[in-house]
Amino acid sequence: MGKGKIKRIAINTGGGDAPGLNAVIRAVVLSALKRGWECYGIREGYQGIMFPERYPEGGVFRLTGPSVRGITHLGGTILGTTNRGNPMRFPIKNPDGTVKEIDRTDELMELFARHELDALIAVGGDGSLAIANVLHKKGLKVVGVPKTIDNDLEKTVITFGFDTAVSFATSCIDRLNSTAEAHQRVMVVEVMGRYAGWIALNAGIASASDVILIPEIPYDINKVIEKILDREKRGRFFSIVVVAEGARPVGGGYSVIEKEAGKAERLGGAGEQLAKLIQDGSGKETRCVVLGHLLRGGSPTMFDRLLSIRFGAAAVRALEEGQSGIMVALDPPTVNYVPLEQATKRMKTVPLDCDTILTARDLGISFGD
Ligand code: F6P
Questions:
Q1: Ligand 1 site, residue 163, Cβ cutoff 6 A
Q2: What would the CATH number be for the domain defined by 8-160+300-332?
Q3: Would you name the residues annotated as active-site residues?
Q4: Is the dihedral of CA 142, 146, 147, 152 positive or negative?
Q5: How far are the Cα atoms of 79, 80, 207, 221, 363 from residue 211, in angstroms, in the given order?
């Protein structure tokens, strides 16, 4: 395995889905077929290869031209995905009900050998790419494709799924403007993004919102209220506040809904918490809208489709060139390759001195600081 000419490759999608996954899959399959390779899909991250009994139609199955026909514009992933059962930290229940985590990556390597798979194209976010890197270090040829609506991956200017999420959030906020104005209310809009504020920042500016709260800038509720009341004085009796799910008050923590073994913590509730503080502190009627998983659904924008297709084809070219342990990355105007090791080292958060933040400040948008 892993040596010599490539004949059979696998592709999987892991972590939260993002618009553009199907476009990547199609690009990988068509590019592989063009080279005379066979291409196999693994269902739901690594579950399909580890637990084939769960999949009557095959946990690892052949992908052909017809299997990827007409999917470029579809959200979701034809392979399925999961953010459970990380093979590096696989959760096992002890008899006393406690949970321990074990490393099953050696077993995974054996399964790849048994299926005679020469290489893997792993499409995922930080968690999935970290697993891919371990498999590469153990000898499998691996190329990663960065995916996440959060855009929090280092070493690529952008991930696919982000543009679709921001575009959708922007059009939702546009709609909220009229109802906010009609009722003279404050509308708080909570968006995803985990510990990075990229979605909130970009959608907030594009929709001309009044306050944007992101994890990178802990907020002071008094400053938020000050901004809303200042608008009031200027005859603007409504305000739009965009809050990232990872936003937190100065001195406060993240709003965590759930923490399960082997899974990333689930964020949520920052918007409701903030709406209450705003209503209590300003006396203005305030409503909260959580966009949540709506940002992950739907058809990818043209930008995300094109990026996904470029990423998928570049991943296959990388394997053909004999590369491994790398991730495809957008480094405009080209798609480049970067070591997986570097790509997963740290999260890409919003730099406080970036021009997007400066632009928002120039336009009078408050960050609650
Ligand atoms: O990483 C993508 C993302 O959508 C985050 O923005 C969000 O915090 C998380 O996934 C939600 O995960 P789940 O699908 O488990 O609710």
A1: no
A2: 3.40.50.450
A3: 150
A4: positive
A5: 39, 37, 11, 11, 11
